[in-house]
Design brief:
This protein has 2 domains: 57 residues; 100 residues, no CATH class. Helix content is 62%, strand content 7%. The protein is mainly α and 172 residues long.
């Protein structure tokens, strides 16, 4: 059995794949385990495991950092969508979109401006999320990637708190 000391954030399935132990490869994946900060692999030599580890580390951007960034950005996007939907559920957003389209078509500028305040607010929330995603792209370690935090609470104060009822009652 061969073993190396690694931290748990590493892409262990990728290391196993490099060794050729992935299911469908020459040996089943049941021959490895991670415990106590070590990856233990049966059926390979220490030299083979260290060679796979070196290959993995030479491609750390592709094997670890890019997937970690993609996952973190997906989490940030989901957090943003949940925040907006908590205040304005999707069905309500769709109603506002229909009312906004009607207002534009009929030249009802007051209704359009009223609903437009919500659109502006959503754009500002999304803009903050995009800035955080760009921050994720600009850092170089797993710790830094996972350390990018999106605090949307400052947007509570600028929420326009518009309602469907109020929008319908505005017909210029």
């Amino acid at each position: 059995m061969a073993s190396i000391q690694i931290s748990p954030e590493h892409n262990i399935p990728k290391i196993i794949e490099i060794l050729g132990l992935e299911p469908g490869g020459s040996r089943p994946a049941e021959y490895y385990r991670f415990e106590g900060g070590h990856l233990h692999v049966d059926g390979v030599t220490q030299e083979q495991l260290e060679e796979a580890w070196a290959i993995y580390n030479n491609n750390i951007e592709d094997y670890l950092l890019t997937p970690t960034r993609d996952h973190r950005k997906e989490e940030l996007s989901r957090q943003t969508a949940e925040y907006i939907a908590e205040k304005y559920p999707v069905f309500r957003q769709q109603m506002f979109q229909a009312l906004y389209s009607e207002a534009r078509a009929n030249g009802w500028e007051n209704r359009a401006q009223y609903i437009g305040s919500l659109l502006d607010w959503i754009k500002s929330v999304a803009g903050m999320a995009i800035a955080k995603e760009e921050e994720v792209d600009g850092v170089g370690t797993v710790e830094e990637i996972n350390g990018v935090v999106l605090d949307l609470s400052p947007f509570d104060a600028s929420d326009p708190n518009i309602t469907i009822k109020a929008a319908i009652n505005i017909s210029d």
